[in-house]
């Protein structure tokens, strides 16, 4: 039901290390990961904030890790996204590869 274990393992963290970072018990982390207990909304927010993902992503309501605040995008960024969305998958792959090349 939650992506807790997946996110924790992505960071290479043990349950104990995560519990210490978030001031929780290791057994609580274990219970949440196995589904033996459901975390309260406060704990879910804590996890989502720690892993820098949306609450919807953490709770598997969405596959979007983090939403973009459109109000913080420039007009150039909005135009780029708009054009990118119009491309087929082959052209999107080429654009992403080109951008990766520019980043090196």
Note the topology:
Blueprint: H1 4-10, H2 15-21, H3 26-34, H4 41-51, H5 55-58, H6 75-86, H7 89-103
Helix pairs in contact: 2-3
Looking at this protein, list some descriptive labels.
104 residues, 7 helices, 434 Repressor (Amino-terminal Domain), single chain, mainly alpha
In words, what does this structure look like?
The protein is mainly α. It has two domains: 4-58, lambda repressor-like DNA-binding domains (434 Repressor (Amino-terminal Domain)), CATH 1.10.260.40; 70-103, no CATH class. 62% of the residues lie in helices and 0% in strands.
Question: How would you summarize this macromolecular structure in one to three sentences?
Answer:
The protein is an all-alpha fold and 104 residues long. It has helices at residues 4-10, 15-21, 26-34, 41-51, 55-58, 75-86, 89-103. The protein is built from seven helices and no strands.
Order of helices and strands: HHHHHHH
Q: Quickly count the domains.
A: 2
The CATH homologous superfamily of the largest domain corresponds to lambda repressor-like DNA-binding domains
Structural category is mainly alpha
Q: Over all CA atoms, what is the radius of gyration?
A: 18 Å
Assembly classification: single chain
* Spatial gap, N to C terminus: 38 Å
Count the beta strands: 0
Please estimate the helix content.
Answer: 55-70%
CATH class division of the largest domain: Mainly Alpha
Largest sheet: none
Counting DSSP H or I runs of 4 or more residues, the number of helices is 7
| Shape label | elongated
